User: What shape does this take?
Amino acid sequence: MMLEVHDSTPNAVTMVSVLQACGALAALEQGRLLHAYILRRGLDSVLPVLASLITMYARCGDLEVGKRVFDQMVKRDVVSWNAMISSYGMHGFGERAIEVYNEMVSNKIAPSPITFVSLLGACSHSGLVDEGKKLV
Assistant: This one.
């Protein structure tokens, strides 16, 4: 039996997986190439792709570009907010992570359990344990 190939073009699910791999390997140049591909293919409105971009840039050490991706998002879900909170946390910017959390809540986005794990991690990495306790 022959296998039919309908569409071999990488889709949003593929991009999320490959961006996660780039982040895990700190493969910034490959991540940038994927970002350009995402823009060309019109996948820059898919929320999981954008959250993966934010995380990939943070894991590769380019927090500024991840923040730019976040700032340019037309719509944000809890996953994209969590990506930004954890990005600040992994770089030791606990106070900024708390600010993002407060902004998220003021935008009426309900925090998830992952939000609190990311926030507590950010506070812990920054020596803000007491502040973290007040948030949960």
